[in-house]
Amino acid sequence: MRKGPGQPARASARGSTAERKQAHLELCLEEDVGALTRTTLLEDVELVHDALPDVAESEIDTGVRWLGRRLRLPLLITGMTGGTAAAARINRDLATLASEVGIAFGVGSQRAMDEEPDLAWSFDVRAEAPDLLLLANIGIAQARTLPVARVARLVERIRADALCVHLNVAQELVQPEGDRDFRGGTAAISRLVRALDVPLVVKETGCGLSRSVAERLREAGVRQVDVAGAGGTSWVRVEGLRAPESAGVATVLRDWGIPTAASVLAVRAAGLRCVASGGIRSGLDVARALALGASMAGIALPVYQRYRAAGRAGARAQILEFERELRTVMLLTASRKIGDLPRAPRLIGPRLDAWRRFFRGGRADRTTPR
Fold first, then answer.
1. Quick one: pLDDT at residue 175?
2. Element spanning 69, H or E
3. Strand partners of residue 135
4. Cβ distance 227 to 204 under 8 Å?
5. Do the Cβ atoms of 148 and 195 come closer than 8 Å?
6. For the domain 35-361, what is the CATH superfamily, name and number?
7. Are 289 and 316 in contact (CB under 8 A)?
8. pTM here?
9. What DSSP assignment string belongs to 226-290?
């Protein structure tokens, strides 16, 4: 049952990493975990209607090539969970579904698996989805402290095709038991880029990426990022609900971050390819993100909510709704293939344009004239 305002669900949950991740999932179902006033600014991207597209619906091709693999849709189910029996079922059901519909899938943070190797089975989906484009996942804190060989084993153990390193500084600072030392993060990422045999994707967790950070990542050898911008799920809010002693700072910083659309513009200006995630709620949002230059769109909460409400059939229906909406927008902009969307006529609203002008100066995203 949904809790009333001010009644945090399972807020006292503590203990192991796996238990904390389970509490996160429950809160995402039972509480309002979105940003309060911040939006993704994807609504500031106005794609221009083409009344005479000269395109048949059957000609629309939503396929993309990403991380060396061909996908039927430019979608990634971003990492959510792992470490418990319930998490294992979620991972296997959604991974199998992703493989069937031709999209990519990422597991949740493997920190629990590193701490307790016996939990590896809850992340291992390869037997059920042998052809899946699968992403492993660790946090920047683990990237800093774990030997490269140990990180490589986490990737190899689940036979992943790539590794996500997630940046979640705001979330960690709000967690009472969270990490506080983030020194050496860039160097750790650089080490992993050089040492791993799989591609590395650096991912935010709801606060977005600026151009200056994207440039530092590029200099470290990173070529792919997931912006995970502000405007969708606020993990600061989630942690405030989970831990009452953090409610004050979580309320103040609930809307912290760079909107998803602005983050896409920032990282593209820095020369990186990107996944647009953070508040992607429709195929129209996917089309807008791709029109700004994203290679893929990442989704989690809408698919998870439908999965919990109606099982795999519900999650499949959600993905197919995204597909239908995306295909419709492509036809309405005379875009036969995904690569046509960045060339489709569009208007940029004033709020997103302000971010675009802000980032245009490259490293000058430290200050801006008023």
1. 87
2. strand 69-71
3. 106, 162
4. yes
5. yes
6. Aldolase class I (3.20.20.70)
7. no
8. 0.92
9. E---BTSB-HHHHHHHH-GGGHHHHHHTTT-S-BHHHHHHHHHHTT-EEEE-SS--SHHHHHHHH
